Amino acid sequence: MDGNSTEPNTPVKTAQTTFRIVETLKSLDGATVTELSGHLAIPKSSAHNYLRTLEHEGYVIESDGVYEVGLRFLDLGGYARSRDRLYTVATPEMKRLAETTGEYANLLVEEHGRGVFLARERGEHAVSLDSYTGQSVRLHTTALGKTVLAFLPRDRVEAIIDRHGLPAKTEHTITDRDELFEALADIRQRERAYDREERIKGLNCVAVPILSGDDITGALSVSGPVSRMDEERIDEEILPELRRAANIIELNQTHS
Amino acid sequence: MDGNSTEPNTPVKTAQTTFRIVETLKSLDGATVTELSGHLAIPKSSAHNYLRTLEHEGYVIESDGVYEVGLRFLDLGGYARSRDRLYTVATPEMKRLAETTGEYANLLVEEHGRGVFLARERGEHAVSLDSYTGQSVRLHTTALGKTVLAFLPRDRVEAIIDRHGLPAKTEHTITDRDELFEALADIRQRERAYDREERIKGLNCVAVPILSGDDITGALSVSGPVSRMDEERIDEEILPELRRAANIIELNQTHS
DNA sequence: TCTTTCTGTTCGCTTCTCTCGAACTTCCCT
DNA sequence: AGGGAAGTTCGAGAGAAGCGAACAGAAAGA
């Protein structure tokens, strides 16, 4: 009833390790057979077997003995994204937003209690970030994520905190449960969230919710370097633009 | 030595079926337990087991008994893409290309003998396509793919044809081996490929290679509706713009 | 309201296959 | 030429996936 995942009583362990291997390749930025074997504490032969299978299936790329995550996942991910109505509707508005502000425009949705960057449009002044489209982040560490949390029913937020915790990303991250709920109440009331270097140092961010009736479908934000994103510019210039974009997206989302 | 995948002698079958399941969910645009069980000819209980496990791991989404491909794959795919130097370098130029032409600008790379759309930038006149970023396509069915094939060593092309065949997509698709090699020779010589409704009806496309020394790293194209993409406009306006963009990308690719 | 008939889900048993360590090979470095 | 470290192959044993039958639960119909 609560939409949360129920533990499978007989999980397919091999499927789990398969993904553990891919995730490890990701976190290591590629690995050799022995490296992987060491990191996951599995025999070399097993690691070898998995990697060869994954490579043969096309999900992993091998060159000079180093195995890496393949672009095949982009096919699955891109497909999943293309089915998301919000993505289709939001893209043109995000483009406009990136153009008028010159900064990054970001779109985030919740899935399985984590935030997924559905899209990112780069403005002409935007500096390259280390983050990428599709990246999965903890909800409490970003303005976007907090905006989503603020409009989710209390029990779901509780469930998410229980499952994922509140680990710190920088010294500014909210790590206290009560403090977080206070922040969320404020965000809900004023319909906007700030992120002052909470996830990435030197980066500020403002986010607004994208609602469909009473439900939140995602959050939209503009982010840029602290130097250019001062309080005044955020409130006077960025926020109005954000709200305008969010409104249009909300309308197009339900319409047609 | 030839970079081709060698068959694993003891493939991890469970990993294979895991991905077969996800791919099936994709091709069916979501499925219930029994639907999946029927399509793959596996017992309901097994299908159930896999789906629950995948859902628990976060790779599949369930709502009202229907399981779908999750956005989690976008995290892996986006990560893989972000590591691709060509992607980073090409994006700004593609943006410019989409703006000046008003059409779609597309970037494709080869992986495992198939073409992957690394990026797509939408111009203001561009009509929405059914295809999505990350989509994997047969190389011989697009101008982009043929461009890549044209600059690949002959034996690799042979290997790719052997593995994937030359199935037709529309009535214009090249399905004959010799005919294809003739076309490739022409493309190699003139450094451009046309696609006249070969993959999608009503859609024309011009592509140019992106080279790094003698090796091809990808292909860049502009595509639009037949009505706007006549021979004259392609040769007079589009092609020069494409070449300019490709040149800049090639330079930035090696430099720094 | 009581059937009927779909789902999805649980439960063991059987069988297949994944696991794992050891042995073999290949390559590089000394 | 020899030592070390990587990848790879192999076979036996343990363990997990496969499978059908039975159960539960919801929806549709009488």
Summarize the structure in short.
Chain A has 256 residues and is an alpha+beta fold. Helices cover 48% and strands 20% of the residues of chain A.
Topology:
Two copies of one chain form a homodimer.
Chain A: H1 13-27, H2 33-40, H3 44-57, E1 60-63, E2 66-69, H4 72-82, H5 85-101, E3 104-111, E4 114-121, E5 136-137, H6 143-150, H7 154-164, H8 177-190, E6 193-196, E7 203-212, E8 215-225, H9 231-254
Antiparallel strand pairs in A: 1-2, 3-4, 3-8, 4-5, 6-7, 7-8
Helix pairs in contact in A: 2-3, 5-9, 6-8
Chain B binds a DNA duplex (30 and 30 nucleotides) through residues 9-10, 12-14, 17, 32-34, 42-46, 48-49, 52, 65.
Describe the structure.
2 copies of one chain form a homodimer. With 256 residues, chain A is α+β, with helices and mostly antiparallel strands. Chain A folds into 2 domains: 13-70, Winged helix-like DNA-binding domain superfamily/Winged helix DNA-binding domain (Arc Repressor Mutant, subunit A), CATH 1.10.10; 79-254, GAF domain (Beta-Lactamase, 2-Layer Sandwich), CATH 3.30.450.40. Helices cover 48% and strands 20% of the residues of chain A. Chain A contains 9 helices and 8 strands. A 6-stranded antiparallel sheet of chain A has the order 5-4-3-8-7-6, sandwiched between helices. The longest helix of chain A is centred in the last third of the chain and has 24 residues, at 231-254. Chain A is globular, with a radius of gyration of 20 Å. The first copy, chain A, starts with 12 loop residues before the first helix and ends with a helix. The model of chain A has no long low-confidence stretch (mean pLDDT 94). The interface between A and B is large, with 63 and 63 residues. Chain B binds a DNA duplex (30 and 30 nucleotides) through α1 and α3.
